[in-house]
Amino acid sequence: MNDINPVISCKSVWKLFGGNAEKYLASMKKGQSFEQIRQAGYIAAVRDVSLDIARGEMLVIMGLSGSGKSTLVRCLSRLIDITGGEVKVDGQDIMDLNERELIDLRRKKMGMVFQSFGLLPHRTVLENVAFPLEMRGQDRHDRRERAMEVIKLVGLEGREEYFPRELSGGQQQRVGIARSLAIEPDIWFLDEPFSALDPLIRREMQDEFLRLQEILGKTIVFITHDFDEALRLADRIAIMKDGAVEQCDTPDKIVLNPATEYVAKFTEEIEKSRVIHAEVLTKPINGYKLEGASISADATILQLSRQLIGDNRDILPVTNKDGVLIGGMNRQEALNVLLGEN
Amino acid sequence: MAIVETRLTGKIGSLTRLQITQFLFGLAIIFAIIKPLLPEFLVRIPVEMILPYDIWLQTLFDFIKDDLGLLTVTRGISSVLEWFLDITANLLYGKRRWPNIGPVPWVAIAVVAAVIGFWLKGWKMALLAGGTFVWVALIGQWKLAMQTMSVIAVAAPMAFLIGLLLGICAWKYPRFQRAIMPVLSILQTLPFFTYLLPAVIFFKVGPTAGCIATIIYAIPPMVLMTTLGLKKVSHEVVEAGHMSGSTRWQMLRYVYLPAARTEILVGVNQVIMLCLAMVVLTAFIGMPGLGAKLLSLMNSLKLGRSFEIGITIVLIAVTLDRLSKAWVVKQPEHFERGTSWFVRHKLLIIGIIAFIVSIILAQFVQVADHITRKQDLSMGKDIDNVIRAILANDIITGVTDWLRWFLITWVLIPFRNALLWLPTGSVILAMAAFGYFVGGRKSALLVVIFFGVIALTGWWDRSMITLYAVISAVILATLIGIPLGIAAARNPKWSEPILLVCDTAQTFPSFIYLIPAIMLFSVNDVAVVFAILIFATVPLMRYTIEGIRAVPSELLEAADMAGATRNQKLLKVQLPLALPTMAVGFNQAIMFAFFMVIIAAFIGTQDLGQELQKTLAGNNLGKNFVLGMCVSLMALAFNHIIMRWSNDRRKALGVG
Ligand SMILES: Nc1ncnc2c1ncn2[C@@H]1O[C@H](COP(=O)(O)OP(=O)(O)OP(=O)(O)O)[C@@H](O)[C@H]1O
Ligand SMILES: [Mg+2]
């Protein structure tokens, strides 16, 4: 996934809340823990985070409440100024942008859905959705047209003249989603965008974003507390704790090889067979001859369970999408994953 | 030196706050007892030591006025204002100025008011708004009322705009806010005479000066509300604005200001009410209108007509207040998609049509155009007779005469003489003790400085007379207002209507309160105290009720379960928790009292108010300012102490 030119690249980004944070950070010793920083009177909302996000990637950020997910995303969009480090978007350090350039960047490239929606209370649904278009100076007719399109897409047809206070939480959230859809930005920041939606609409929305990502190659940074959602969407998952990214990897690797104890605990409850794909367990066979029916590389172990139990070969051949043999999977290893023994 | 200092502070540190308070208070009493032995400067600041602030200020003003050429600037401003005022004056009461199309017939204005009332809150509001104007026309006070309204129509939008701009600046630049806040709090306590004189000197006499004074008087709350509202805009809304790529101007115009709508409209309500209150008072500098008429009627003791004008002013106040408050809570309503323009703007169209129809009607029916003297329904003479008959009733005269006698001989005069007798040093020490008890060293120091400055101005005795009127009235108001408030709060059936009455009474321009005072006690100290008393009882009652009712119901249930009787519950639970809120009411009562005592000057008191009023005749701006500052400093000292106490108490109780 690691493109040579990442869309967003951040290097040891810090965000401390508290007076004179920059001065403190500059004089701070390396390797201070979250607690130590707190004793000094600062909250380390983002702690030494380095991430590269490739074009067309969907990065999901997870972590407990207060672990700094929203703050990290705000650093990436420069809604807040970082205390230390560097954030580059398309190779441009966004801390160097002046006001005009920043506005331009946001108008042309970025969109965001906010955790608590951030709807303008005095505007109708339609006006809220059309707001970013209005800021860009699009003419009235065009922006109404476009706004109506996305309102339909999120299923709020017929409510376009309502005010936010007249909508339920889930409906308000969909207005927020529609507002960011209206401009189809290249880079999308979604802060728990579906938290208030019912399962049906949630699934529809997930599909919509997957579609956009696939067809239009959008880059998406997605925050969620829901592991299932993360699995459906994520190319990679970043797990945060106390402001630091503990591990950032594909779902399989996170589950299979947790980098820290915290990540292990975080993923403990998850049924691994649902996450792990055959491909991950596949090893090269070095000319070894394999017999019989092959299995598909992007099937999860759970999906293969019937086959695993029924089969009696030790090594199963694995083929990729195009039907080319890529190696073999040890059946016992796969069964261990399925039974949760590891 | 350093060692001595640490030792001293160490010693102070080891004394409790109560001990220091007792020490300061004891010292104050000792000073009073050994008055004959005290050095002169502790009794009264000797004349040689009095600083000629007034002359310094006068020189400063003259310098600004003449040498810096401020006068040309202000005259420029006044010609612009005059232009606006001429327009409203022409439209509302037909002053012969450009655009020479007025006056608008009263029916048209009443009808439009009714439509606006309906739009904001339905039939009842329509009735109130329309009815007020009908009353004003029928009672024969149309022209007076329109003279007053024509100034408000210019002053309120101006004050709104200036307040809004200053508020935005204060929100944007913290440094500007820090600079402007103390100025605003001084402005809010300065007696209104201090607004009037500079207005007269820098701007021409008449409507322009009145308008300027009114604008300045109405600005502070607008600034405060704007800043408050802008600060309260939720940060995700702000961030949504940023992420949409808004420029600074777009942020302000499309995000901040609309999102702060509620607070800004509350500011508008306050601006309108303060404009009305002040515009009535500009009668003192010869502004024609309701205030001037009321002043002259009260001077000649024409109680019936005063009463009618009082009703007019009250009705206008209530209407303006209710209309603007309805605007605050009115939320935009949505129409279904595809609703036609005509349906969406139904009321606007109805309003315009009604306006045009009434104008046409007025061309043919004279009564609809204006009400002549013979046609009006004023019954001033009859009311006069009725009032006199009621007041001549033996029981009432008996009671008022006795009250007057009792209060004057046994309460007011002794108290006043005592205050005047007390050495300056003793009063300042007592105030310091008070300040120390509440807010520690800083508060004590502040109070000492404030009162020290007053002593140095040489207006100590007059200040004490002012203080005496304020304190006696507020004590009486407390004795009446708090028990009434408590009684009302305990019975929900009563508290609602009483709160409504208080709310309404607070919108009346202060001038109104003089009418019953003069009716009952004619012109003397008792009338002054009485006027302040009713004016100050209102906030006391209101905050008492609100404080008691705000006590969380779980606490009351807990007390019930602990087996507390009604009285125990009141004394042990409700009152202690309500006390901080009640203190806010007490503070407001004192501020109102300082305001009222100055107005009452025209009844003929001997306090600062009277001196202030005298300065209006000449153009002694320096002295005017010094006197104004004396009042302001006293008010600020009380304000500081009480609010400090209330906030500390709140924190200690863990509420707010
Ligand atoms: N403006 C601020 N000032 C001070 N501290 C802040 C501020 N914003 C966030 N924090 C702190 O930073 C930490 C991270 O907050 P953040 O909102 O990023 O958490 P989160 O991971 O998004 O949590 P949640 O899942 O509840 O949304 C928290 O401890 C929070 O208290
Ligand atoms: Mg968050």
Automatic annotation (TrEMBL), chain A:
Keywords: ATP-binding, Cell inner membrane, Cell membrane, Membrane, Nucleotide-binding, Transport. Gene3D superfamilies: P-loop containing nucleotide triphosphate hydrolases. PROSITE patterns: ABC_TRANSPORTER_1 (PS00211), ABC_TRANSPORTER_2 (PS50893). One of its GO terms (biological process) is response to osmotic stress. Pfam families: ABC_tran. Its EC number is 7.6.2.9. It is a peripheral membrane protein. InterPro entries: AAA+_ATPase, ABC_osmolyte_uptake_ATP-bind, ABC_transporter-like_ATP-bd, ABC_transporter-like_CS, Gly-betaine_transp_ATP-bd, P-loop_NTPase. Residues 28-267 form the ABC transporter domain. The keyword ATP-binding applies. It is found in: Cell inner membrane. One of its GO terms (cellular component) is plasma membrane. It comes from the Bacteria. It catalyses: a quaternary ammonium(out) + ATP + H2O = a quaternary ammonium(in) + ADP + phosphate + H(+). It is an enzyme of class 7 (translocase). GO terms for molecular function: ABC-type quaternary ammonium compound transporting activity; ATP binding; ATP hydrolysis activity. The complex is probably composed of two ATP-binding proteins (TmoW), two transmembrane proteins (TmoV) and a solute-binding protein (TmoX). Belongs to the ABC transporter superfamily. This is Quaternary amine transport ATP-binding protein.
UniProtKB/TrEMBL annotation, chain B:
Residues 145-324, 463-642 form the ABC transmembrane type-1 domain. The keyword Transmembrane helix applies. One of its GO terms (cellular component) is ATP-binding cassette (ABC) transporter complex. Signal peptide: none annotated. Keywords: Cell membrane, Membrane, Transmembrane, Transmembrane helix, Transport. Pfam families: BPD_transp_1. The chain crosses the membrane at residues 20-38, 101-120, 127-145, 151-171, 192-219, 271-295, 307-327, 347-368, 389-413, 419-437, 444-460, 466-486, 577-604, 624-642. InterPro entries: MetI-like, MetI-like_sf. One of its GO terms (biological process) is choline transport. Its main location: membrane. CDD domains: TM_PBP2. The keyword Mitochondrion does not apply. GO terms for molecular function: amine transmembrane transporter activity; carnitine transmembrane transporter activity. It is a multi-pass membrane protein. It is found in: Cell membrane. It comes from the Bacteria. Belongs to the binding-protein-dependent transport system permease family. This is Glycine/betaine ABC transporter permease.
